[in-house]
Amino acid sequence: MGDPILRSISGDEKLTIRALDGRFIIVQAKNIFRANIDPHFIQWRLSKLGIATPEISVRVYEMIKDASFADIFNSLPGTLEQKWLTQNQVIEFCAVWPDWLRSGGFATMFLCKNDESQPIDEANPQNNLMEVGVSAKTDGLSAVVNHFDYTYVWAAKYRRRVVVPVII
In this structure, are residues 86 and 53 in contact, taking their beta carbons and an 8 Å threshold? Predict the structure, then answer.
């Protein structure tokens, strides 16, 4: 299986995102993402209202090995369908748990769907997956979006973080 890509840094700490109705999306969350909201959220038509979600627990990981988005998220147990968060949940995490975001302008990564009401095709996940990167900068939070199949290899030395639901 090789060397691990991520290590849990939240441990047994209970990080809970409350039940949400899906009404809030990143392009509208200027009060949370004060530094920047990537225009690709609109250009790629990612500004649709989301789905309602129950309360969930999440875990925070830190990169310890260089990897692409696909490598990072596939290195965690479970299916991709079990690892994504809604845009509303990303906003809520950033509002409630900002101390868990990677500081210094480096990203905290979240796996999201392009269309939250559609399933992920595990054989072709790029058809309905994106990565949302949130960076904590001196002038506030910044949200950027990348396609899941973006093959850039992210350097572990910057200790980027990854937030995913706890899979029971």
Answer: yes
**What are 161's strand-pairing partners?**
62, 108
Of residues 3, 10, 4, the one with CA closest to residue 163:
10
pLDDT of the residue at 1 = 53
Domain boundaries defined on the chain:
6-165
To 5 degrees, how large is the angle CA 138–CA 71–CA 74? Answer: 105
What is the pTM assigned to this prediction? 0.96
Q: What would the DSSP string read from start to end of 99-162?
A: GGS--TT-EEEEEEESSTTS---TTSGGGTEEEEEEEEETTEEEEEEEETT--PPBPGGG--EE
pLDDT along the chain (168 residues), means of 10: 88 95 96 97 93 98 97 96 98 97 94 96 94 94 96 95 94
Distance CA 33, CA 151 (A): 26
